[in-house]
Amino acid sequence: MRIAPGFRCTGVASVASVPARRPATRVVYRHAEPILLLGLAIPSAAIDLRIAQTWSWPAGLIALWLGATALAVGAALFRGQLRAIGSALVIGSLYAVPIVGAIIRWHTVPSPTALIGDGAYQTQLAGDFLLRGIDPYGADYAAAGLSAAPWGETFASPALHHLVTWPGQFLWPLPLQLAARPLGWWDERVFLLLAAGATGWLLLRLFPGLPGRLAATAFFLIPGHSLVAVLGDNDLPMLALVLAALLAADRRRYLLMGLLLGLAVVTKQHALLAVPLVATWAVVRGADFRGMIRAAGVAAIVGVAVVAPFVVWNAGAFVRDTLVFLAGSGLDAYPINGFGLSALLLSSGVILDPRGAFPFALIELIVGTGVWFLGWRWIRARARLADVLLFAGLAMLLVLYVSRYFHDSHLLLGAELILAGLAARTRPLAVPPRGRAVLAA
Fold first, then answer.
1. Residue 178 and residue 232 in one domain
2. Which of 33, 41, 115, 417 could connect to 106 by a Cys-Cys bridge, CB 3.0–4.6 Å?
3. Is 376 domain-assigned?
4. Could you read off the pLDDT of 311-357 as tens digits, one per residue?
5. Does the pLDDT at position 397 exceed 80?
6. Helix H or strand E segment including 14
7. One domain for residues 36 and 149
8. What does the DSSP assignment read for 147-190?
9. 117 and 105, same structural domain?
10. Is 175 found in the same domain as 46?
């Protein structure tokens, strides 16, 4: 390009320290962690306080616990260099302490009601059945003591005679459960706490620095998480495997991604909803068609290897528990309940029988396909890793909402992934210079 005659740059003169206006967005970014931590810690602490009061914890112990938590929040708010440590301490206090308290209480305070949720307790009993050489599918969980688990519905717990999860849910904690036998007790929530630690670590690896800390804070301190966790948040092992697969995809280790996705699906069926989205990120990171086929083959081999022994053991019981019970109709079907689409259709008279047939599986497929397609377009166009969590949460939330039953734990599962994905999208903005250069003509 030519410069028009008469206009020639003769030098650069610096104007000293002209203050630049700070964008409001940079201020919000700078304070994102304190805002999120304080905004989630207060309602979570209020819920935990109610839990402790229900369990009749001594007032002095409660005051000491919440006071120490407040100090950790204060350190994170007012000492920037302590924010990482302060956030970790707050998460450990408000998420893990109630779980540890629930474990101790169940094993030390005599009560006719087991202080553990039916899902976590059933997983623990399934492992015990397997260690005794009994097929966990079709087993009598009522006789094993599951009826003591808290149950708030008007009908008997369907878990008393059906194990809905796939084998990984009770196989992965089995070594720890076996090792704990000499102690005379085992609590599934010990393994779930380890899965929670793995989940937090994976979030920090996926999103280094502040975005990872924000994602972990949003994931664990979302209000209501501790209510589910004290009874046993048995979605965590599946989620940890999905996050590990996403990390492998991000590192371009596609066979490892396939292996981990296969393990996730045979742990809990909900993992299927995240598989296309993790695969989308693998394509963004450069996976070709041949690499994806090999990864899918590894996932299929792993899935068959885990499931096949139980199908061979008793195919009828396995199909009734994991397929017919969830998607079928009649006496072997899970009755419609909760607060999702199925409950609305039942209350409005569209569905006449809580155990009646209805094409929920077809509706789930349509909704899931829509979310996957939108996620495929969005993630490929923007290439932002946090969006994989966001769309995985949307898929789980929306598909489970239109399923046969939708509970508070399903709402939490989708919400925590969505909130973690939104928090992880935080990116530092460039710091404007303290001075500026002016061209002198």
1. yes
2. 115
3. yes
4. 999 999 999 888 877 776 666 677 888 889 999 999 998 998 888 88
5. yes
6. strand 11-15
7. no
8. GGS---SSS--GGGT---S-THHHHTTHHHHHHTGGGT---HHH
9. no
10. no
Note whether 155 and 79 are same-domain residues. Answer: no
Please check whether residue 432 lies inside any domain of the structure.
no
**pLDDT tens sequence across 12-22:** 444 344 444 44
Looking at residue 1, the DSSP 8-state letter turns out to be -
159 or 363: whose pLDDT is higher?
Answer: 363
The region that residue 349 occupies, defined by phi over 0 for left and psi between -120 and 50 for alpha, beta otherwise, is left
Tokens representing residue 387 in the block: 């969006």
The span from the CA of 440 to the CA of 437, in Å, is 10
User: 154 and 284, same structural domain?
Assistant: yes
The pTM (predicted TM-score) of the whole model is 0.89
**What is the rounded average pLDDT of the residues 370-399?**
97
In a domain, 3, yes or no: no
CB 322 within 8 Å of CB 164: yes
- What domain count does the chain have? 2
Of the ranges 55-64, 152-161, 171-180, 370-379, which one carries the lowest mean pLDDT score?
A: 152-161
Report the first-to-last Cα separation within the chain, whole angstroms.
18
Say whether both 184 and 322 belong to one domain: yes
Task: Indicate the average pLDDT of the chain.
Answer: 88
Closest Cα to residue 439, out of 19, 13, 16, 17?
A: 13
Residue 126: which of 137, 117, 116 has the closest Cα? 137
Q: Which domain holds residue 300?
A: 112-424
